[in-house]
Design goal:
The first copy, chain A, has 8 helices and 21 strands. Chain A has about 400 residues and is α+β, with helices and mostly antiparallel strands.
Chain lengths: ~400, ~400, ~400
């Protein structure tokens, strides 16, 4: 960076709440596990936005409690120990909690202990839909929000390129999740980025289809990024119809392999960090991606393909297609692995917050900037670092 | 943790010296190595309470010196280099120290150097008994204490369940030591914990014997924890005869496999962190455990079984028994490996000192609390972190 | 360390600029890569003194630019992407830089972007000589210095033991480089250290030759270390003819294997950290070593053997000799691997700067002390830690 550029460093006051959000935003719904990952009576431990969460399924229903025993702080999920359908016990001294309330209702090592009934483990609201388990992460006293407010909105029925809605009964979701290096903000920003197609120029998915991704989707004006911030779910969207698709750079001799772009492709990004790509990886399907903060340097990358399947046969067909094509060609080596590479590559520049000050944005970063504004103005809260005694006072309304 | 619980955080002033003792307590005897680990002329390097120590055996006797050459600070033990029986040389430039005094008595690279005779390497008192080498770690000018003051006391000769005394001539000690994750305080606290038996419910040692451990040893009153803090060695002890052994929890449907508890089982914990379990792993034997601080996140876990053997035949019998049963069944996969798992599990909660403030103790933790008081009031000093220029002024008498 | 020694700690004010130089000294030439490591059109990324540098060869010439895209800070070299001979493109969004000027001349994702032509990537001066690529690392506005000022000086033509000069046309350089643990200062200090020969006492190179290294080269007076600080290149040198070679220590019973020392051996150390050993590993050859700072805990250890070869046949002979003997016997297991072991061993003592205060220097460390003075008084600048916003004001003239 030259001396001039150093002098021109932006004032970052505006961006501060976003910089503070390195551990995630709170009072939102996040995907926790796929349903098949917690079978009846199983206990699984995960971490979202720095919070350890234990999930247990009992009589079909999934419960979520803080995965840290009140006694000496061990992960309850480390050695799943349940003796009844309505409790979960810590494997160490037998502190036993009511699944529903989190109340300490027994201690195996001290059945008449005065502590019983006096303390409670934190619990979290859970919703399970179409094979995915969602957990509401945030302040214990924050009013529970509808799950529909934190997932991509339903598209109008008469829209020519209509794809499946996540919460519909006839929607089938198939996908994977991976624990990735990199802060959730960088991953989320990369998800909808209209300028990053160069990394996919030679991706097998692109070369194997009848379409090409353009070298870039040039934003022709302020309308190219639509901000939906009046009603929940809140989002920003790229309207591909208003974009100029650049297929060639003559000066440098770079060209896309094909000439046409995918029909009906729409890209939008929702709070708390959900990418929605319609008619992708092929017409009629949709791809959802979540970049769930784990800690300040890792996120869980959820990649889910959605289809509307009205019959058992359609479900079976979609599953065969997914297993034999899309998982590898779209979600893994054929396309998204390149995105993972790119996200990890930005981590170093931002990990000590230098990047926010030294980055040099260009015109297509309008999308990234609008996303940051959406987080700053509409996230329901900024997650404090774990173990921090000073809460970050970041309620968006007060900013 | 709920908002209420956060508000009820304990004042920790009382506990502060214990919290400061993350690198160990000083001016005490710690086991360093088994005798067979330092053969004649061998040099071995270890670390106790952050202090690097080199041990060398010459003419049968073991010497201990600070394992950091005065010149450029390398570990002398990294490339053992001894040219005479009464010296140890640094392998790099040949700084040569007198084994007894630590005085710099030669420099191979500069035989007439003015530095010779002017500086000394720190030495440590050493005692070797029954196959174990002990080193006195602490302030250079602190008066040497008797080893007998830092190991479990001799039991009265006429005690029905009498087991071997560590320092007796006819005592045989067989065991192992392991470098484990976790601070020495958490390991020590877990050692004598009367409430942790749930983790051993299905341990092979327990299922293979005629006895069971209870689900817990309920403390029936203040007498259940005996504090011996008048004379050295200082300790706390559980008297199993005064405890209520809980064998079942009907509400949760948990039960011990057998109905009787081990005869003569007594558990006591001595400064500087030595667990003494009488009549364990079986009647007539005793198990000693040390949790020697290595650094602030690791300890060396010593597990030693003691027997009284009056003849060579008895020694041989005990060795056969140990090799073919107790090492695996008692010290490793049959029992103590579960303790190692449990200790490591608490490390995260306490590693930034959050646990001391947020832990929720219950009635059986009276034992842990008395142990902490013993350390706070009677440890001969708190070890400063290595490289710290500000000494922690923690002489117990002044507290 | 005894209480007395602690009290006698040296005042370190004098040494402070040297202690500050943990990331290297700046405005000097450093070797970056061997020529064969960057073939035509290849891009390679390295790090010198904390600065990421991308090297690209185009039409035979090597260019060096800061290896951090202005946009989002990724390493440009992570996925080499070049479309024309005079540019280098970032693989992520296609930010394209002019190789010569570093100017942003195109963005593939946004060909008409207003940012084009407005910003520049930092470039570095490059020189390539005899198979080595050198880069000038330092302040962007610092006047470029001649490479000859930063490499060992030419020896007089009529000197009996004359060896090859690095920059001569008929000089052939063969060698290796390795990424090693340890700060560059400790590595450099060890390079010319006249007191460290004990570690080479049993080295295969020494035992296989007709000469021995002495146990030490005792400095007989102030003349033994010659300081050349008037003209560039600046250096300190040991004159082996004025040294007393110690071949035996009778008290300890240590003796060198042979009786004679190598003829014409001269050791000198140049800014910015280049060791020059004449007539080594055998008469007529010379060994160069650089200890190039990578970060504050690692350096790149360059080991190069130089020969004068007037004909293609001589070049071939030297190459056969190097491949079949010197690389293994001199640079690797036969000799220098012991130096790497020794350097790594000092790292722990100095990594938190404790060593500078607690080290105990002896008479032979006069060489080390003169080297430190040379750095403090004549380095062209002290490198700031990366990402630090406060520059270390360490221009040597002002000290």
């Amino acid at each position: 960076m030259s001396a001039d550029q150093v002098k021109n460093r932006k004032p970052l006051k505006f961006l501060q709440p976003y910089i503070d959000a390195r551990w995630g935003i709170k009072n939102h719904w996040y995907p926790a596990l796929f349903s098949h990952e917690v079978k009846e009576d199983e206990v699984k431990g995960i971490q979202i936005a720095g919070e350890p969460v234990a999930l247990r399924r009992a009589d079909g229903r999934v419960y979520a409690l803080r995965d840290e025993c009140l006694h000496r702080g061990v992960r309850i999920s480390a050695r799943p120990t349940c003796f009844t359908k309505d409790t979960i016990s810590c494997w160490y001294h037998g502190f036993t909690y009511d699944l529903e309330s989190g109340d300490l209702c027994d201690i195996i090592a001290s059945q008449e202990d005065p502590l019983i009934g006096k303390v409670s483990l934190r619990t979290y609201p859970v919703e399970e839909v179409n094979g995915m388990i969602f957990v509401f992460i945030g302040d214990e006293d924050y009013p529970r929000q509808p799950l529909a407010h934190d997932v991509p909105a339903r598209v109008a029925d008469d829209y020519e390129y209509r794809t499946a809605y996540l919460l519909d009964e006839d929607t089938v979701l198939l996908g994977i999740r991976r624990h990735c290096v990199g802060n959730w903000r960088l991953a989320t920003e990369s998800g909808g980025d209209p300028g990053h197609f160069l990394i996919h120029r030679l991706s097998p998915l692109v070369l194997s289809q009848s379409f090409s991704l353009p070298l870039s989707a040039r934003l022709t004006g302020p309308d190219s990024v639509i901000v939906n911030d009046k009603e929940w779910p809140k989002s920003i969207a790229l309207d591909y119809d208003t974009l100029e698709h650049v297929m060639e750079n003559k000066r440098l001799g770079v060209k896309t392999y094909g000439d046409t772009v995918p029909a009906g492709l729409n890209v939008s990004l929702y709070l708390p960090g959900v990418l929605y790509v319609e008619n992708w990886p092929t017409r009629g399907l949709a791809q959802y991606e979540w970049y769930v903060p784990a800690d300040d340097g890792h996120h869980v990358y959820w990649q889910v393909i959605a289809a509307t399947c009205k019959t058992a046969e359609e479900r079976q067909d979609f599953k065969v297609q997914y297993d034999n094509c899309w998982e590898e060609l779209a979600l893994k080596s054929g396309f998204n692995d390149d995105d993972i590479f790119a996200r990890e590559a930005t981590e170093h520049f931002y990990e000590d917050d230098r990047g926010w000050e030294e980055e040099t944005l260009f015109s297509l970063d309008q999308f990234v900037v609008e996303w940051r504004k959406l987080v700053i103005n509409h996230a329901r809260g900024i997650q404090s670092p774990p173990n921090s005694h000073d809460q970050i006072s970041a309620h968006p309304d007060g900013m």
